[in-house]
Amino acid sequence: MATPIRTPGRVAAPGHGGVGDSPLRPDGTLKVSGEFAYASDLWMDGMLWGATLRSPHPRARILSIDVGPALAAPGVHAVLTHEDVPGRKTFGIDHPDDQPVLAVDQVRHQGEPIALVAADHPEIARRALDLIAIEWEVREPVTDARAVLADPVGLAVQPRGGIVRHQPVRVGDVDAVRDGVDVVVAGDYEVGIQDQAFLGPESGLAVPADDGGLDLYVATQWIHNDLKQIAPCLGLEQDQVHMTMAGVGGAFGGREDLSMQIHAGMLALRTGRPVKMSYNRYESFFGHVHRHPAQMRYEYGATRDGILVYADVEIVLDGGAYTSSTENVTGNAASLGVGPYEIPNIRIDAYGVYTNNPPCGAMRGFGAVQACFAYESMMDKLAAACGISPVEVRRRNAVAQGSALATGQVITAPAPMAEMLDRIEAMPLPPALDAADIRDLPGGASQTTHGEGVVRGVGYGIGLKNICFSEGFDDYSTARVRLEVIGGEATALVHTAAAEVGQGLVTVKAQIARTELGVRRVTIAPADNRVGDAGSSSASRQSYMTGGAVKAACEAVRGELLARAAARYGHDDLSVVGGAVVSRAAGVLAPVEEVLGDDAIELTREFHHRPTTRLDPVTGQGDSHTQLALCVHRAVVDVDVELGLVKVVELAAVQDVGKILNRLSLEGQIHGGTAQGLGLALMEEIVVSGGLVRNPSFTDYLIPTILDVPPMRLDILEHPDPDAPYGLRGAGEPPTLSSTPAIVAAVRDATGKALTRVPVRPEHIAG
Amino acid sequence: MDFLRPPTWADALAAKAEHPDAVPLQGGTDVMVELNFGARRPAALLDLTRIADLAGWDDDGGRIRVGAGVPYARLIDGLGDRLPGLAQAARTVGSPQIRNRGTVGGNLGAASPAGDSHPPLLAAGAVVEAESAARGTRMIPAAEFYTGVKRNALAPDELIRAFWTPPAPGPQYFSKIGTRNAMVIAVCSFAIALHPEERRVGTGIGSAAPTPVRAVAAEEFLSAELDWEGRTPLAVSAAQRFGALVADAAAPIDDVRGTADYRRHALSVMARRTLTWAWNDHAGDSRREAS
Fold first, then answer.
1. Is A489 in contact with A668 (CB distance < 8 Å)?
2. Locate the FAD-binding PCMH-type domain: which residues (chain B) (predicted)?
3. How many CB atoms lie within 10 A of CB A211?
């Protein structure tokens, strides 16, 4: 059988840098020059094209499906429905019975997959979709999450009920202290549906394998969890599915749930031909879950000095039609519901509910983003009520190392929040408005102002994010490292199943191998399931977990190398330095190449983080988080208060990362997370009415451009976490939390408006 | 789908007469997107990019005749000094890549109420040169060109060859609301052009009615109100009245990009601001002439 092209191969890691250096990415030039092979570029001679028929209705019964005319169309090789699913008919990221592979007798959201077509050409496949006749009984969709909370039985979208999870948190006694406080502030807050908006749409190639199994090339975030879901639905064993990571064009949580994996597999197994599926931008908006929209009610009581006495919080997250990650998103919203503040009395009720709105699941920040917008807005409100500055009110209530979170979990690692607030406050402010170039003004090139109506504002935000999986999950990672002499030079091959989603893991793995093995040349194997589970590229966890696994595997390989050297040279005080085995007493003994000879040392190691516990279902108490990370932002904005348009002038951030592994990649993560938070603050929203998405395109779902994202001033701290490899702290998500409330606070500062909903729209400011 | 590639203008007119349902193609920045998303499946595409004379312009000192195939980027560079309102609008079209491909001719052909060219063409009093093999050339004033949502005055056998517009006789401004600071489709937009010799103000409103429209009552009010000779400063009340009349001329709707109320409000602000800039320029010219 022919082999597919544009699939990933081994890549040589460029540069010579170890941990702490900033070698360039192996895929950087390729991506910038348009040469990188993304999943949508996969190709194989003789392949068919798959397409998906999706529901136009948010809620309807399917009375009949007639695939006859579609199947009869020239060039069409297969038309499949739920009847053709070879194995289990349902799958899910956390529960195998969560959602149907293809709708059976009803649909629960717009865009739910119903039928599949394989054809010679993508256009033939798409036209065949139009020939599939469905008889519908359209029903009134359930779209109000709060209504479901009030009537979870009557408005149940799922047979398992209307509520996915209710997680309370109880500390102290809110009712007992409520009447005794000096100051009470309250607010209702709302977060719209944000989309991951990755630029590389869902794509992959399924190829029938010679052994009766399947070769799958897909852009995903977690190969092994995909396999657990894919194989049973296809009626295969997991080891019959050979899965290789294809080029990922962004993820941000949106590739944690399956998209086309099972569908392409079904079509390939049925036709015996390779099948490629690649969503277009419109379909992509229906092809992955989004960030949960939230409705939140907060009430805080405090002393007149702004010391928090109690927090009374309700958070309602709309999970849409299926469970996806809603349980864990709800858990995060609950455990991080009041953020990095010490509060003696807490009552939090976080709910995830089912509706017929678009399914929501994982997205960068994962339940912590929504709460952060609310609790930071509350801190500003409290500051105003007490007549103290926003920074000071945060400082007075800040957690530190040794503090207990709302869950009772004590922060054992450094948490230098007060220092971070001091540092951000001390940063110089950007120069005053210069109206000479309209591109520097709100509205930009659209020329809505020459300076008229423009008012400057400053705001602060700080966020607390859990790193790695929480609540008892053992999300370990596995790495295989092989050290051998290739072309006369010792070369390390690093093999993991971890997804490179743009974050730079591919670079960091090589840096760790160089540092631990003392070699210069490192090759990175493509991620696949010929090595053990690496866990998900989520929860800011891969430097920690897969970095930890690579470190452990390298240490084992180095140990074996030194054991061989010890046996050969008769010293036991050995280390590897600059490519040579060195004895403390006797100096350089031999180059690594000489010790290895023709042998290879190949070892595989797993890395596990410290165990965590579930949250108590009644009190919400527990040591649920592996690691906690802080980022603080200061936003400076110019707002055209008459037109409601915003130009973010500067975003400054202080983030504690424990240890900088690669400053260039790290700064990219902070820039990117900050920009994604800016998008949520000012423009990014999937607008839904009556369960229908109104803006499934990049014409109307706006993401920030270079004229919207300002220069960023970063101050990166390194207070090591003794539990983590190299002392590092996961870094990808925290800036996504804090930039949103900082920007909204700055816009409030400029306008005096309450602004309780994100994204803030021009009419909210101008109205 | 047929793909027609006439080498000359005469061939193009003949092709359009023979295939009246063929969709003309210039930069493809609208048409190809619609094709790719299956929103439109025309019987034929009529590719006009091989016709060299569509991609140039003539300036005989009186009116400028701009070929339908001149991309925005060239219009900005080559005609920005003489057609400043249109050039400002062109700078807000899409991304640099889109501006390298997209054309005013295509914008006219698509006739979207959100097209960025339309308000400055209306304000300047531009005229569209349409032509058919059967009936020859027809000159259609911009104000009569837009007939409905994404509909224009062209007959099925007609093609847009050029548009005609005088070099700016006075200050011109274009302003557009978008919810990000670049690469955004108009929530609403406004163009103003002063015609001092005629003592007249031209206006154009985009994205706030089924078609691009002039604010005629606002134009008439202001043309009478302004002190064209003395160039005395603009009264605040006059600017506000002008803004209100512009807002009244719109017929906006609530949609995913913005509310009708916000569009009316934003139009009144843009009208007031652009008028102020234009009148200050006009008065500044007078001061320069006096010194």
1. no
2. 1-170
3. 10
Taking phi over 0 as left and psi of -120 to 50 as alpha, with beta for the rest, B207 belongs to: left
> Residue A607 CB: number of other CB atoms within 10 A?
21
Per-residue tokens: A150: 């009030």
HEC letters along A455-471: EEEEEEEEEEEEECCCC
Q: pLDDT tens-digit profile of A667-719?
A: 999 999 999 999 999 999 999 999 999 999 999 999 999 999 999 999 999 99
Tell me the CATH architecture of domain B172-290.
2-Layer Sandwich (3.30)
Classified by CATH at the fold level, domain A477-607 comes out as Aldehyde Oxidoreductase; domain 4 (3.30.365)
* Dist. CA A679–CA A369, nearest whole Å: 13
Cα(A477)–Cα(A474) distance, rounded to whole angstroms?
A: 9
* Partner residue opposite B175 with nearest CB, options A126, A448, A682: A448
Task: Give, as one character, the DSSP assignment of residue A39.
Answer: G
Judge whether A40-140+201-248+255-287 and A477-607 match in fold.
no
> β-strands A712-717, A308-318: how paired?
unpaired
Cα separations (Å) of A562 from A199, A583, A601, B212? 46, 10, 11, 78
Strand partners, A359: none
Q: Which CATH number fits domain A294-470+614-766: 3.30.70.980, 3.40.190.10, 3.20.20.10, 3.30.365.10?
A: 3.30.365.10
CA distance A732 to A363: 12
pTM above threshold 0.90 = yes
Q: What is the CA radius of gyration of chain B?
A: 19
Which chain B residues contact residue A124 at CB under 8 A?
A: none
Residue A691 burial (CB < 10 Å; 0-12/13-18/19+)?
buried
Tokens 């040349």 belong to A521
Q: Which two tokens stand for residue B188?
A: 């609403």
Number of Cβ within 10 Å of residue A304's Cβ equals 12
Q: Which of A126, A447, A706 sits opposite B175 (nearest CB)?
A: A447
A570 pLDDT band (50/70/90 cuts)?
very high
**What is the CATH code for B2-165?**
3.30.465.10
CB contact under 8 Å between B256 and A694, yes or no, is yes
Give the torsion sign (CA, B115, B117, B122, B126): negative
| A121–B contact, CB cutoff 8 A | no
- ipTM score of the complex? 0.96
